[in-house]
Predict the structure.
Amino acid sequence: MTGDTPAPPGMTVVPEVGTVLGRFDAPLERARVWRVDWSVGLDRPEYQDPEVAREAGYPDIPVPPGALLFFSFLDDDSWLARAGVRFDRSLAVQRRLVLHRPLHVGESVSGAPTITAVERRQRDWGTAVFVTISTSYESGGSVAAEEHVTYMTRHDKESDGARS
Amino acid sequence: MALGPETCDVDLRLGAFTTPPLDRVRIEQFTTAMRDPNPVHGDEGFCRSLGLTTVIAPAGMAVVALAHAVARHYGPDSIREIDVALRAPVALGERLVCSPEVVQVTDHVVELRCSATNEAGELRADGRIVVSIPDGGFTP
């Protein structure tokens, strides 16, 4: 069962390298950044007040490193099925971000999250499938950041069979 | 206080950043910002069906907290790379203690090892963060 074919009930899709999970072109909004900053307790004034940020030499509030997450920019959740990610079977296990330049509120980013790696590891209970989704965030005509997120999905022996 | 490469000593432990308790309100704010539909962050019944006692915080909160633990020392524009392994779920109400330690300094690049634990010292995430420092140092 490939990443492009809907799975019948009970069967989990096994993803394929090269599958594009969606595309986005979205602004970096102040409300998003404020929510992230507040929720984690970030305590720098330039993360909260755009005037303070500008006085500190930034064009606007800096987007906290780590606040870029590919699915937050996609229009829907269809990427889950194509990546073989399930809320009841999957966990994010690794996140890697390479930041070529800082990003600030008011800028826009575009990208196309793509499956770049699929690895299967046998376990006593079944198979662990590791899927890496990579996104290049383009802004202002160049790549500002690259993100790689790896999910592990559990396929138990006695439950559905995962087929490629 | 001005810092520069000459004062970023290997094995230097920087001051830790501790989040507030990651309660339901904070989790909801983060999942709203990230448009995260995963019911494990808000649906008690779903969590119990998975064998969890209650909801858990998104792993992304640990990543943001770890990055901030470094950025508050070197500046928000200093971070060049974050590579974090998510080791265990962050339980509802936990405070993450994020501790960076310098492991390598090369020219104007500092590599740090970082860990996020709960207040009992149980590991939630760890990894490596790389920062670059401009000529002449900076004032955090």
